[in-house]
Amino acid sequence: MLDNRPQLPTEIARRRTFAIISHPDAGKTTLTEKFLLFGGAIQMAGQVRAKGEARRTRSDFMKMEQERGISVSASAMSFDYGKYRFNLVDTPGHSDFSEDTYRTLTAVDAAIMVIDGAKGVESQTQKLFEVCRLRDLPILTFCNKMDRESRDTFEIIDEIQENLAIDVTPASWPIGMGRDFVGAYDLLRDRLEIMDRADRNRVAETVQISGLDDPKLAQYVPADLLAKLREEVDMARQLLPVFDRESFLNGSMTPIWFGSAINSFGVRELMDGMGDYGPEPQIQTAAERKIAPEETPVTGFVFKVQANMDPKHRDRVAFVRLASGHFERGMKLLHVRSKKQMAVTNPVLFLAADRELAEEAWAGDIIGIPNHGQLRIGDALTEGEALRFTGIPSFAPELLQGVRALDPMKAKHLEKALTQFAEEGAAKVFKPMIGSGYIVGVVGQLQFEVLASRIEQEYGLPVRFEPSHFTSARWVSGPKDEVEKFVNVNKGHIGQDSDGDTVYLTRLKWDIDRIERDYPKITLTATKQMM
Ligand code: GDP
């Protein structure tokens, strides 16, 4: 991955842009909190939640988020850790938001996979891992909750190797578990880390030792656990691959750390791992060419749009991953899709405490650009070059429902709300050619509830979602005259998405197969590149 690459400018080389993936409840929020704590972004753990709490009182949508225990909106946070600048991009944890998550993962260079030591690889971890795999993202694994009864270390490693088909190399080895958990042996640096149970926000005590034969070990580790540790590490060294940075960077090997996020244990070692071994900002792909981070002109792409972050202003924030260059506030950038210049005067850097005005940013950083709807997912910003970044897909929704305003006088408002959510990427909205109303498509059932709740909160508009007689949507492409012919014959099944592109709506998989046979020049696709 890094072969034959020039050395990056220091400011770029020190950046680590990553996401944390996990199954709900494995400890992602707790780990995030500790990252922010050790990154100096918050003073005390518990703030992420406390701040979340305060935010949640503002709307039902947020309350729902709380009741369901899911986090719906992704955000990005930047902080310094040692000589590194970490950009942590938060991913929604619930499977109903996988599309959002997928897009978030197009903006990062690496991922941390958190698993619960008692539960191993759970369904959502597996799904998210597959998405990372599609992009060959380097993955660091954190096996959490070692202060509880957990599985045998070899069993956990085996499960990851088997289920995820990735080589696993232990970066640390746990000593004891549950009530007897003492700490871990740092295999990469030959150190002993002792967990402090008394103070959850304190970092573990580290003892420098010369190896597993060091007599000092006996002062810290009970004899039976020490014997077991020596035996296990010996076996691990024989059976498991050693850390190889190249294999890690190309996504075929994951180092695993064992720890307890809530006890701040193993977290710093994981952060050090991300800093010291993690990837620098990577080359990004556009349809025209590849973009290297060290190129001087600024380029970037929008991977997420979030509306109504501040209920007082009906603004939207477009999250932009900078692919290259050194950005400075006030810069004029070309919005490639509209071919218009945009003066970026009030970009936001997401420092954990609050949004902060960004004076400068480098390749690898995530900046937020407040706008009135011009910026959409997939859009490119450059200093003049007409680039189209690739790899940000739009998925065909798996569930379709009709929607109507309970107050028929407010149909216009509904249209506005739906258009906005479509642009935000929160749902697909189709206008059928025949009949009135809209059909809304999502990836997971829960999204309908979130949408209904948001439309009511943000637009004061109670709505009802109801079953639609369509169950699938496919984008239609082909030669213009063929598409026209096709549309004319199938009017009852045709709709337009929010970009004006033609979709074919149906309830039968059989229909889709039939069309592929009857109209060989027409292509029906389940994804479309958003550009
Ligand atoms: P998320 O859903 O993945 O964000 O998980 P949370 O961070 O909210 O954690 C889920 C639950 O596990 C919470 O009750 C945490 O307090 C608890 N938890 C997190 N880390 C640890 C840990 O290291 N040990 C123990 N025993 N509990 C933990």
UniProtKB/TrEMBL annotation:
Pfam families referenced in this protein's UniProt entry, alphabetically: EF-G_D2, GTP_EFTU, RF3_C
Localization in the cell: Cytoplasm
Gene Ontology terms describing biological process: regulation of translational termination
Family membership noted in the UniProt record: Belongs to the TRAFAC class translation factor GTPase superfamily. Classic translation factor GTPase family. PrfC subfamily.
Gene Ontology annotations for the cellular component aspect, listed alphabetically: cytosol
Claim: Lyase is one of the keywords in the record: no
Protein name: Peptide chain release factor 3
Keyword check for Transcription: no
Residues annotated to bind GTP: 22-29, 90-94, 144-147
